[in-house]
Amino acid sequence: MQPSRLFEEFPAPSYRGNQESALSAIEDAFEAGNEVVLVRAPTGSGKSLLARAIMGCARRAEDADPHQSTGAYYTTPQVSQLEDVAEDDLLSDLNVIRGKSNYTCILQGERDTPVDRAPCARRQGFDCSVKHRCPYYGDRAIASARRHAATTLAYFMQTAGSEVFRKRDVVVIDEAHGLAEWAEMYATIELSPDRVPVWDGVGVPDVHGDTRENEDALDRTARFAETLVGVCERAKDDLLSKPELTPAEAARRDRLQELISELGWFLEAYRDPESTTTWVVDQPDGEGSPITIKPLDPARYLRHTVWDRGNRFALLSATILSKDAFCRSVGLDPATVALVDVEHTFPLENRMLYDVTQGKMTFEHRDSTIPKIARLLVRLMAEHPDEKGIVHAHSYAIAGRLSDRLAEMGVAARVRTHDRHDRDDALEAWKATDDPDVFVSVKMEEALDLRDDLARWQVICKAPYLNTGDSRVARRLEEGQWAWYHRVALRTVIQACGRIVRAPDDYGATYLADSSLLDLFDRAEADVPPWFADAIDAMERPDLPEFDPEAALSGVDAAPGGSGGRRSRGSNRSSTGGGRRHGTAGKSDRTSTNSDGTVGGSDSGGSDSRKDHPLSDVWGE
Length: 621
What we know:
Elements: H1 6-9, H2 19-31, E1 36-40, H3 47-55, E2 72-76, H4 79-87, E3 95-96, H5 119-122, H6 135-145, E4 148-152, H7 153-158, E5 168-174, H8 179-187, E6 189-191, H9 217-240, H10 247-271, E7 279-282, E8 291-295, H11 299-305, E9 310-317, H12 323-330, E10 337-341, E11 353-355, H13 366-383, E12 389-392, H14 396-408, E13 415-416, H15 423-432, E14 438-441, E15 457-460, H16 471-478, H17 482-497, E16 509-512, H18 516-523, H19 530-537, H20 549-552
């Protein structure tokens, strides 16, 4: 690597914000001999451009000996982030490759068939006459041969050990803050009817039951895993004996092989007395029910899939909150890691936080707090009559209850929602409309760009604590890792706050509705970045309009009334104007909202959408 090339490799014609000083600090960090540089850069810093400059410093083939690694990888956990890279003209030399399921076959009669289910994946000895024009193999050949390859972290990790995607000189990981949790999720083994093709052919034990002396749940799970591997191998061999498979049979074969590999890795770690990986097992419904096997420490897994893939690494994120804690979580030696802080360039008045807390959103207090938040949302609609807003509901249960309440209050005409299966389509429809609609969302705190009029205000309904019912979370809390627990929640809040203000001249208001958020800021104070601490210190309680559903709908062609539920309507009306800038809330003479309480908890919520899921890039490989 040659860090001295950073400035000449910067792809933009000029610098903005603190990019020039960031490049200088990154150069110094690598020149000092650090193997890994963490770049903590807030939203709007142009992290992708910094990433491309770092990649450009990788050793070039013409300067390398045959045994030396050359070139660079760019990877990110976020599918949408990779799509942004692919569409950026300044990053046109990052050659993007994704999993086979994202490409379709070009053979006659197979044009709707994903490449992972094409004849080459179904027929023994099939010799494709157009493989040289196959979109997947074409992109793979280009990405593997060129200096800069870009892919999702799922595909990057899955190709560890590949002869095609070998070790490179430099690896850049964007949105790297959740790398440890991501690795844990990727390495989690789900044994359930929809994930185990031979489920009906095996007897699933109660792994937490006391069936044998001196055996715990992990021992019983390992015994079951050994049995399951044998059943899977026989089923796979039966399929491999056929000269041709149907697409469904090909999918079954691939899943069997994937499951054999997953269980083999678990059994290897379980049997190895030197292994540092701790496993936990969930089976809440006992005998015959699904089992989830989870690694508690992903460092060993990351060593093979990430750290062995490059000589130097740059990890970029706005929310790597603690260098030492991050290094511990991903298996890095802090002595070989440098942290570069990029200062925020967005004016504080453009990214204000507002205290509109209505009480606690812990499970035991939710029944009394949700109606108050629903009334708050009506008042915020009146405050922003012709501006779009997004509500971060945290879970589908909360989103549903809020939407029902808003419908009862007569403002459903301005509310959009989504479910687990239509989240992408619903999001795109809301973004496309000119109407000042309010989108009640779930798990959209990250990787969402709502610049300018796409959203001028947002509400965080609940402190995003991890679910304490999750065995990994419970195990860590039993070990006293409360700082980690609060740090992860804080990270999600900071990510959410970055959704609606995307540039120095952009602006938006973030409203905090759960009083547990204020408690979180106190508990995680040591990990709060200075620029976010400034926003917390400047936080005020705004004066809002009185509760008035008619005023909430004043910016749309509707009267209070109607019913709730998900809507997919198009834009058949225009907003009444661009709306006023809301950087000075609290200046009008209106009645303020009420507040009480502290502390936090969690419930679960997520998406089953295969397209949006981070692993969607490699399912079926």
